[in-house]
């Protein structure tokens, strides 16, 4: 049985012997080769499959630390603003800890899979008539009143937990890759990856992929107009690459059809950035941040439709041949 993330990296995290570990078995996610995309891009490509985390996204790495520290401090409630993944993770870990979770999300802007998760865990979900950034401002004000602990990535314990993905990548490869490619929404994960590399004394280029239209991108998980960590990201050596929705969706389709990896659109942003200017001949790790079941509406809209046939072998064979690409 794999140890909880906090136990595995205890000496590198801000925890003590008295910190109550709130865990759902996060971390230790697969690092998978991507042979077909490697051949297409001319690189040695590996994919860090973060959908293997308990709630289906990388957010669980930071949430286990943030909620554990909140409980240690005596908190009875957490709050976050979210486009979906943070909400699902906060709700799950709050439930695990026996405390309440308040979720503020932009009205009508959260994918169905994430909303279903959050509600199932019993969190109080409020849809804010405004943007993510306005919801985050409101969450921060509640935190200042002392009624809730903020578990957005502005909470430094989130950053600490998320840096462990870098530790795992380096451990499995035996060295740092030449390039790390990740999506860029609020910027917390970019800061986390830079922090992890710095703590290990290693260097790698970080390619941080943002959507060209941050306010309206189809990649709802990175639909953040004003990244909370923009200044911190600017202080890292990360290279920001802007990708269009068309490029993101093309990469999303490639991951599913060439490598068998069904992710939410935002997770494909790093692959889209790599495709613009492939670092040929280099070893690259792209982090796939969230599962495709987080956003079933996009798959339903873009993937081929099913075909209704009679239960007859000849009819099935004919329909099968007609539907082959």
Features:
four-stranded parallel sheet; alpha/beta; 325 residues; 2 domains; Rossmann fold; globular
Question: Can you walk me through this structure?
Answer:
The chain has about 325 residues and is of the alpha/beta class. It folds into 2 domains: about 5-55 and about 155-300, Rossmann fold, CATH 3.40.50; about 60-155, Rossmann fold (3-Layer(aba) Sandwich). Helix content is about 40%, strand content about 15%. It has 14 helices and 10 strands. Strands 1-2-10-7-8-9 form a 6-stranded mixed beta sheet, with helices on both faces. Strands 5-4-3-6 form a 4-stranded parallel beta sheet, sandwiched between helices. Helix 10 links the parallel strand 8 (about 205-210) and strand 9 (about 240-245). The chain is globular.
